[in-house]
Amino acid sequence: MKIYYAPFEYINPSARIVLVGITPGPTQMVNANNEARRVLLAGKTFSEAIQAAKGVGAFSGEPLRTNLINQLNHWGNGVRLLHRYANNNGLNWAS
């Protein structure tokens, strides 16, 4: 058994849609922890690091991100939602 931790405790109180993942995998863990480290080394607060880590790590990596975008597109407006999220959080979500 392997257990992975990623700092995904941040909850956006103004969220209009919630995507729930069961658990982070190794890709999400590495991406989130690297971002948290980068933000902390830049002198930001722990809360800012948690928020940034979740924004970068959540649903990151392939094929996860591509599959998520395809599913959201199937339901409608998926890419529009993800791009708005990315733009609001300084991220680059390829579609």
Oligomer designation? single chain
Largest sheet: none
Order of helices and strands: HHHH
Report the C-alpha radius of gyration, rounded.
Answer: 13 Å
Termini, distance in Å? 33 Å
The averaged pLDDT comes out at 81
> How much strand?
under 5%
Helix amount:
40-55%
Uncertain residue ranges: none
Q: Helical segment tally?
A: 4
Shape: globular
Structural class: mainly alpha
Describe the structure.
- By secondary structure, this protein is mainly α.
- The protein has four helices and no strands.
- Helix 1 (26-41) packs antiparallel against helix 2 (46-57).
- The longest helix has 16 residues, at 26-41.
- It starts with 25 loop residues before the first helix and ends in a 6-residue tail after the last helix.
- The relative contact order is 0.15.
- The model has no long low-confidence stretch (mean pLDDT 81).
Topology:
Layout: H1 26-41, H2 46-57, H3 64-75, H4 78-89
Helix pairs in contact: 1-2
